[in-house]
Amino acid sequence: MMITALFVLFFGLLALGMPIAFAIGLSSLIIIFVDPTMIPYVVTSKFFAGIDSFTLLAIPFFIFAGEITTASGLTARIIRFADVLVGRFFRVGLAYVNILSSMLFAGVSGSITADSAAMGSLLIPSMKKAGYDADYAVAITATSGTIGALIPPSILMVIYGSLTNLSVGQLFLGGIVPGFIFAAVLMLVAYLVGRARGYDFRVSDIDGHSDDPYWKELLVAFRGASIALIIPLIIVGGIVGGFATPTEAGVLAVACALIAGVFFYRTLNWSKIYEAAYRSALLTAVVMAIIAFSTLFSDILTRNDFQDWLLGNIQLVSENRYIQLTLILLLLFILGLVLDVTAILIMFAAPLAAIGVTLGFDPIHYGVIIVMVSLLGACTPPVGTLLLIGCSIAQIPLSRAIGTVSWFVGAQLLVCIFLMFVPEAITWVPSLVFNR
After folding, report:
1. What residues make up the domain containing 345?
2. Does residue 244 belong to any structural domain of this protein?
3. Is Nucleotide-binding found in the keyword set (predicted)?
4. Which tens digits make up the pLDDT trace of 77-111?
5. pLDDT given for residue 363 in this prediction
6. Number of compact structural domains in the chain
């Protein structure tokens, strides 16, 4: 009864246009004060407990590192390196540049919105100028932005690990292979859609190519983007090697980005650093507000045995654990149509993790799959953050991009279902480093 009332209140407040963090918080507060089994002081207790985590301190540092690298001009250097590497050789070269650039930038930021906004602001206009349709450019930019939550570091992996008491280092490593598979599948769909539309742009046109030999141009581009390749190695190496916690690794990422911008590229000044810090503070406040309010929501679900209720209803459909997990993934996908990915994970991570244990899935395999499917909502209307960012940059209505992005999102959903049956693709890398 209380679970039903909680969801009705929450979606009702969303329908009235209330911001998601406040809709989560207000619906939770009403239930807490109406339910006689709940004690009101749990509000302050759970609210602050939700964000009172040393691991979650990694979030503002990863956000700040991404803002610093963007302010220092590293984003353009990443795109230039990807352009020289793959842009000139393939039929839809700029589409491949877009996807590869997202992979490289993901190793610095860990934020899907920062990734999509940074890549989109430079690549969507370039793709339109080169002759690609705007909806095609938006679809690729939005879906490739999801790779940022899989290639380490990943803010969403930090959140999931913190809420479920799983190793963030193992989750980071577990996302590497799925991230590469996502990229490969997106490139395949980009090629097929591009071929169907008659694209034949084998030479990209971001800022022109020099007259130097290819090997020299590639070396110069690699040198310019080398920081983007070094930072993720420092982060993952520090965590995996036991030299740093995720939070300390975030501090290292900020330090590397600052050193690169101030001393290596010499493009950072105090004004740019201040603006990057200001933007990081705003984004961190939004994320932490969602985390704090969602902790209340999740606690109500757990106290009312939501995981048992959900699993019981799923078992009415089938006793096969893979069919049960498929139904859970479809539920997450549907929730992603109307909820932000961060809110989904925080509200449902704990109860869904308990279901995963009951079903007998490896927790790292299960957790990465949950994050992957939750991500797809960022590319689907009406609340798809990455899709909205891309449409805003391309200056096209959301309705124009829906048809095209559905091909890419559909392919990603198939990848998630495939990986559900092949846990080794996710657990293989963590098992090489950790004793599992």
Report:
1. 54-433
2. yes
3. no
4. 888 888 888 776 777 888 898 898 888 887 776 67
5. 94
6. 1
